[in-house]
Each structure stands twice: as C-alpha cells, then as structure tokens.
Amino acid sequence: MGACLEPPTNGWIVTELLSGKTLTEWLHGCKERRKERLIPLPPLEDRLKKGLEIALAMKYLHEQTPKVVHRDLKPSNIFLDDGMHVRVADFGHARFLLNEEQALTGETGTFVYMAPEVIRFEPYNEKCDVYSFGVILNELITGQPPYIETSFGPSKIALEVGEGRLRPTLPGNDDQLQELINLIQQSWNGEATCRPSFSIITSSLLEIQKKIVGRNYIPI
C-alpha cells in the first residue's frame, strides 16, 4: 500500500489489485440475495478457512493502537486475492477507537449485518464488528444469506434485531458443528460485553477446524 499527496486538493492511494471475487460471489455465485443456490456450496474446509482468515484480519485491526473499528463488515466488503485468500476492504465507515470505552455513536453499516446496539443508536465499540462476523460465519456455514427465509425488508430486520427478537437461522442439528454454532451465538450475543474478542475467536476457530477437518490450517 502506498499514498501520494499533492496539496492542497489532490491525493492518491495505491492498494493491492484484487481481481478476484467478493466473498458473496464466491459463496453464492452472484451479488444479489437469492433463496436458490446458483453454484454448489464450497467444501466446509474452504468455508472454515475463509472464516478464520476474516477473523485474523479483524484481530489485526482491533489490536492496533488505536483500535480500528470497521463498522461495515459484510461479505460484499470482503475480497479474495488470486490465491483465494481473504482481504477485508472498504474502510469508508471505519473509525479509530481512541479508548477502551464505548465511544462510537451513530447508525452506520448494513442492517442485515448490523449489531443491535448500532441499530438502536447506542454507544458502541469494536464488538459491533464481532456481531457482524457472527452473522457472516453463520452464512458461511449454512450457505444461506441471513434472513433469506423471511419476507422481511431491511427496516423490519433492523427493528426485530434491535429488539432482540431475530437472528439468522442456525445450521441444523449436527454434533460436528456444535462448537461452531456456540461460537456463532456468542459472537452475535445481544450484550456486546458477552461477545468474544477476535483473539479468542481465532483460537477457537483453529481448534474447531482441526477437529472437523482433521488437520491444522496455517493462513498465508
């Protein structure tokens, strides 16, 4: 990454070229929300890898000083490079968190992935990204866009999520996925303080991945 400034008005940012797909396109085969699948669901191992790489990227952002809060984490803002590795992008809504308190306010992001405290215009911190990640991780595991089984529009989804009455449909009963389901539910907990950090999430996903796939995965 590089930058060039030409005061007082011009500035340029040079970033890595990402000519591949977004996570949405990789998972669903299209950019639009659809009930029917257009492509076969990628193997569970690959979906777990994508979840882990997203968590590692967010762990890096949240461990900066000051912390970087993305505030609009969603599959269409996650790109894949030529090696099919995750790149979290679109920092147009991102903010620095200058202390450890809930210092940010204002509704920003995308309703389907937005944390309830953000929807309610309450102060919030980096745990809003953890909520968004929980929704994304569930989407990776189920292969279904969140709330696609309902007839709700974005405003209705926001109302129900903000009131604590709605979360995406979890995977069906599967003992193999139970630890993963628990992690998803912890990540989208209505109480932000009860959500795990991305440090805990990455450690948990590494252990879950080892149990499900049978070997360790070391991201490049």
Overview of the molecule:
The protein has 220 residues and is of the alpha+beta class. It has one domain: Transferase(Phosphotransferase), domain 1 (Orthogonal Bundle), CATH 1.10.510. 36% of the residues lie in helices and 10% in strands. The protein contains seven helices and six strands, in the order ββααββββααααα. A hairpin with a 3-residue loop joins β1 and β2. α2 runs antiparallel to α4 and α6 packs antiparallel against α7. The radius of gyration is 17 Å and the shape is globular. The model has no long low-confidence stretch (mean pLDDT 91). It comes from Acorus gramineus (Dwarf sweet flag). InterPro entries: Kinase-like_dom_sf, Prot_kinase_dom, Ser/Thr_kinase_AS, Ser/Thr_Kinases-Pseudokinases. One of its GO terms (molecular function) is protein serine/threonine kinase activity. Keywords: Kinase, Transferase.
Output the keywords.
220 residues, two-stranded antiparallel ribbon
SSE order and pairing:
Elements lengths: L1 E5 L3 E5 L8 H6 L15 H19 L4 E3 L8 E3 L5 E3 L6 E3 L18 H4 L7 H16 L11 H9 L15 H10 L10 H16 L7
Antiparallel strand pairs: 1-2, 3-6, 4-5
Helix pairs in contact: 2-4, 2-7, 4-6, 6-7
For the biggest sheet, the summary is: 2 strands, antiparallel
Helix and strand element order: EEHHEEEEHHHHH
Strand order of the largest sheet: 1-2
How much helix is in the residues?
A: 25-40%
Count all strands and give the number: 6
Tally the helices.
7
Q: What is the averaged pLDDT score?
A: 91
**Helical/strand content category:** alpha+beta
Give the N-to-C terminal Cα separation: 18 Å
Shape: globular
Radius of gyration of CA atoms, rounded to a whole number = 17 Å
